[in-house]
Design goal:
alpha+beta, Gyrase A, domain 2, 5 domains, 8-stranded antiparallel beta sheet, 5-stranded mixed beta barrel, 12% strand, SecDF_P1_head, transmembrane, translocation, protein transport, transport
């Protein structure tokens, strides 16, 4: 093999980079374990899970910007390490995954100024009805319905969208099609605005690796917050309507004396330990540990003052110099500052003029720049500015944000970025009054209690005005314009799908999955050594390197590892082992034919040997992965990503790393036999007439498929809520439960009996209901959850509703996870899954046709895949009612089904490749003999690969978590059936259709 040195260097560097990337995960986990231990040490019997989580968060905040690792050339803080760690999905880490729907209907009503036009409102009502059964976006449905009943009425009519507010965008008597384009732009603008507002809120929530993205043009936004524990807070955060406000601002000069007095008062407060203990004992809010931000080096509290946390000028402010910024602090100290400024002792220092002052922070931090010629240590920790807002008794802003008609980023005469803002007639009057009374002063633009801008007012302004700043960037101007437009958001985004996994369940999934995964890998490694001896050891080394590469790449690119992702890794491990098995079996064939070891190795690794089959098998699986990634959602994407990464790494390690190790052994004169005393002679001299038995196989397969179809059409399949809509809760109890009894109890609460089934253990139930699923609003979600709690109260003892709700770690009873899917999006998820399955089959059909140049090969492969899918579905239909684990058909099941598709195709293509090779060599043989001999020659490889793959899956099935058992059961059935079908279905179908092709020719 050429370029061995280059391959060795690449493998070494790649391995080191992978270890380097994975080390961040271990370091982050160590710090987080310390935080958990700290929270346990601080906990008392009265501490709730929420308070324990608060202790953890405060500990992590205290070390966020402290160096925890120094490698000589670079230092890393906890925040740096956290950014680089491997991201775990919801099913492994806990958290919330939600899809929000921006109501296009409400946007249209808002744009029409709540039009009373009869045609317009009828079209909206008709679009509402159709949306429940259609995957089209709402605007398309509205447009179609309007066209049906419009007659002479146009969308540009003054009573609809031809309003004064839209006069610059929609002209009188404009064609409906062009009005529709304008409406789409306005809707897009509303969605983008909502997206940015949500992004800003989430950034401040403190969750690592949040994900927020828009889903096509549907008006939907997906948010994933792995690790989020305070689910109630998150829900309010992402569903509440943005509140844009304009307030007058105190200058730094006006509050200077207050800060001087407050600094002295805080210093006095923090000297008196008895006062601190009193605060700690009498109020949880002012717990001194919370008050001081839990800094690990804060042992001498009497040395601290307000200025320890807040940087405000201690010098006299020069005459004429004022600023809207009154102070700044490290981001990690903002919570402490808030607590200090809210204590009654400090608030008492506010003068009459400052009595109603609200202290609010900037919307984003900044990194201080080191001044030129600065000598000494300069603190470059991110800081954030503080503003003093002129409040009032009623806490009512000077102007509400709903008066904004439009806002955009523009450039002034000097080509500097600024924000152009237009107000409606009501807003113009208010704005003119406010700016006229505050010339030379500051007015703050505030969204969600964060200050986005506090410009100085240079003159009285009218309906159109601009906001500018000397150092304002284009991006900052765009942000402010987005915020101003948020003031006209017609409604809060509605949560139409939500999956919540409690951290306890997530940790259990991690522990169970990785324990079983490790056990499975050990079994595979031992099997390879048992079967191939020293050569198997070399394959094991390549396999371990492959796993290192996969996890290293996932960590390097910030990919998210999920349970279906682990399934993708399982498949690639199977493919990696398969590649080595194919190569080793070809080498054994050469040795059996009395060829020398060196020649047999050369042929085994050549394109004429095993490489052709390996490449074909990997390409078909890669194509499947690409289609799944394009069309799939959620778990399917996670599966596809790890599958594609694994294919690349498996190919490299199986072909190159194994080759380097084996060549080294050969050159040293090592006697490699590629078997052991135990496996010697296995699967040799096999001559099975497979084609003669194909009719029996057809009958067996047909009977199983018909039985499955009968069950599917009579009994049906147990669809998960992500396919049918509804709410599902996994609830843990302190004692074993009777599912039938619980269902009867909950029937009284819900009106109809929910579906209740044991989930893993006897003290854990999965409760699924469609109660009020068609009603909208977060208050409905709370109501359903409260109803569930009420119905189960007799089984929960003294457990409070607060501790029953999902989120935070749970040591006993409570909701471990929940999922809600509205019926409309459930239909969309099913459609997306079907596209993924059929799309992958079509692409594979075309590739096999191109590669083997015969339609019969494509037909055989695709028929075998359909055969496997139907049998898996049939088994699930027949057994779901009595199996002791969850067997729902949902997105995770689709990922499992597609794993089966990938495995089956991989197996089939390897066999087809050998048939093609034999047909080229043995031209005088009958084609039936060619097929039988080819199948017999690959039988050892087929059985070996299947056994190793099943070993992995059985280990995970038996020792993995409850949430993955149904998923793994589908894989086990699929791999067993896939092995059978590649031998007794795909090849016979190919043979029979090829005979028909020859007749037609």
């Amino acid at each position: 093999m050429q370029n061995k040195g280059l391959i060795k260097l690449f493998a070494l560097l790649f391995g080191l980079v992978s270890l380097y990337q994975l080390s961040f995960t271990f370091l982050a986990n160590k710090v987080e374990d310390d935080a958990v231990e700290y929270s346990k040490n601080r906990a008392t019997e009265t501490n709730t899970a929420r308070e324990k989580a608060s202790f953890e968060r405060k500990y992590l905040d205290s070390v966020a910007n402290k160096d925890i690792i120094d490698i000589g050339i670079a230092k890393y803080t906890y925040n740096d390490v956290k950014d680089k760690e491997m991201n775990l999905g919801l099913d492994l880490k806990g958290g919330i995954n939600a899809i929000l729907q921006v109501s296009v209907k409400e946007v249209l009503k808002s744009l029409s100024n709540d039009s009373k036009n009869e045609v317009f409102n009828k079209a909206l009502e008709a679009a509402d009805v159709r949306q429940k059964q259609s995957s089209l976006n709402y605007l398309d449905l509205f447009f179609e319905e309007f066209e049906k009943i419009a007659g002479d009425t146009k969308l540009s009519d003054p009573s609809i969208f031809g309003t004064k507010a839209l006069s610059e965008k929609i002209t009188f008597n404009e064609a409906n099609i062009t009005v529709r384009e304008t409406l789409q732009e306005e809707i897009n603008s509303s969605i983008v605005t909502t997206l940015e507002v949500l992004r800003s809120r989430i950034d401040k929530f403190g969750v690592s690796s949040p994900k927020i993205q828009r889903i096509g043009n549907s008006g939907r936004i997906q948010i994933e917050l792995p690790g989020a524990k305070d689910i109630e807070r998150v829900t309010k955060l992402i569903t509440s309507k943005a509140e844009l406000q304009f307030w007058e601002v105190h200058t730094n000069a006006e509050v200077q004396n207050f800060f001087f007095a407050a600094n002295a008062k805080v210093a006095e407060m923090l000297k008196d330990d008895s006062i601190l203990e009193k605060e700690k004992d009498t109020t949880k809010k002012d717990d001194i540990d919370d008050l001081l931000g839990e800094e690990t080096d804060s042992t001498k509290v009497n040395q601290k003052t307000l200025q320890t946390y807040l940087d405000f000028p201690t010098y006299q402010i020069p005459q004429g110099y004022t600023s809207s910024v009154v102070a700044s602090a490290k981001v990690t100290d903002t919570s402490t500052v808030n607590k200090l400024l809210k204590t009654k002792e400090v608030k008492a220092l506010l003068s009459t003029k400052l009595r109603n002052t609200k202290f609010l922070w900037d919307y984003k931090p900044f990194t201080p720049k080191k001044p030129e010629n600065f000598v000494g240590e300069f603190n470059e920790n991110p800081r954030i500015n503080l503003y003093a807002i002129k409040g009032n008794r009623k806490n009512k802003p000077n102007i509400e944000g709903d008066v904004i008609a439009d806002a955009s980023q523009v450039f002034d005469q000097l080509n500097k970025p600024e924000v152009s803002m237009t107000m409606n007639s009501s807003g113009t009057k208010q704005w003119s009054k406010l700016t006229g009374e505050n010339i030379g002063k500051y007015v703050a633009i505030i969204l969600d209690d964060n200050v986005y801008s506090a410009p100085i007012i240079k003159g009285k302004l009218g309906s159109m005005s601009s906001i500018s700043g000397g150092s304002m960037t284009v991006a900052e101007a765009e942000d402010i314009a987005t915020v101003l437009k948020a003031g006209k958001l017609p409604a809060a985004a509605r949560m139409i799908q939500a999956e919540i996994v409690g951290p306890s369940l997530g940790q259990e999934a991690i522990d169970a999955s990785f324990l079983s995964f490790g056990l499975a890998i050990v079994l595979v490694l031992l099997w390879m050594i048992l079967y191939y001896g020293k050569a198997g050891l070399y394959a094991d080394i390549a396999l371990v390197i492959n796993i290192l590469f996969i996890f290293g790449i996932l960590a390097s690119f910030g990919a998210v590892l999920t349970l279906p992702g682990i399934a993708g890794i399982i498949l690639t491990i199977g493919m990696s082992v398969d590649a080595n098995v194919i190569i080793f079996e070809r080498i054994k064939e050469g040795l059996f034919k009395k060829k020398g070891l060196k020649q047999s190795v050369e042929e085994g690794f050549s394109i004429k040997g095993a490489l052709s089959a390996i490449i074909d098998a990997n390409i078909t699986t890669l194509l499947t992965g690409i289609i799944l990634y394009v069309f799939g959602t959620g778990p399917i994407k996670g599966f596809a990503l790890t599958l594609m990464i694994g294919i690349a790494t498996s190919l490299f390690t199986a072909v190159f790393i194994s080759r380097i190790l084996i060549d080294r052994a050969v050159n040293k004169g090592t006697n490699l036999t590629f078997n052991t005393s135990v496996s010697k002679g296995w699967f040799q001299n096999i001559n099975v007439e497979f084609l003669r038995k194909r009719k029996i196989a057809y009958i067996i397969s047909g009977a199983i498929i018909i039985g499955g179809l009968v069950s599917i059409f009579s009994i049906g399949l147990k669809q998960g809520v992500d396919f049918k809509g509804g709410r599902s809760y996994v609830v843990r109890f302190d004692q074993d439960m009777n599912a039938t009894e619980v269902a009867g109890k909950l029937k009284d609460a819900f009106g109809t009996a929910p579906e209740v089934k044991a989930y893993g253990t006897a003290n854990q139930l999965k409760i699924t209901t469609v109660y009020k699923i068609d009603e909208k609003g977060t208050e409905i979600d709370d109501e359903v959850q409260n109803t569930l709690y009420t119905g189960l109260k007799s089984y929960l003892g003294n457990l409070s509703y607060e501790n029953f709700k999902p989120g935070f770690e749970k040591e006993g009873a409570g909701v471990m996870s929940s999922i809600k899917v509205e019926p409309t999006i459930a239909d969309d998820i099913k459609t997306s899954a079907l596209y993924a399955v059929f799309g992958s089959l079509l692409v594979v059909f075309l590739y096999i046709l191109l590669r083997f140049r015969k339609v019969s090969f494509s037909i055989g492969a695709v028929v075998a895949v359909f055969h496997d899918v139907l049998i898996v579905l049939g088994v699930f239909s027949i057994t779901y009612s009595f199996m002791p684990f969850d067997m729902e058909i949902g997105q995770s099941f689709i990922a499992a089904l597609l794993t089966v598709v990938g495995y089956s195709l991989n197996d089939t293509v390897v066999i087809f490749d050998r048939i093609r090779e034999f047909a080229g060599i043995h031209t005088k043989w009958k084609y039936s003999e060619v097929v039988d001999k080819a199948l017999s020659s690959t039988l050892g490889r087929t059985i070996n690969t299947s056994l190793t793959t099943l070993l992995v899956m059985l280990a995970i099935f038996l020792f993995g978590g409850d949430s993955i058992k149904g998923f793994m059961f589908a894989l086990i059935i699929g791999v067993a059936v896939g092995t059978y079908s590649s031998l007794f279905v795909a090849t016979p179908i190919m043979f029979d259709t090829s005979k028909k092709e020859e007749k037609n020719d």
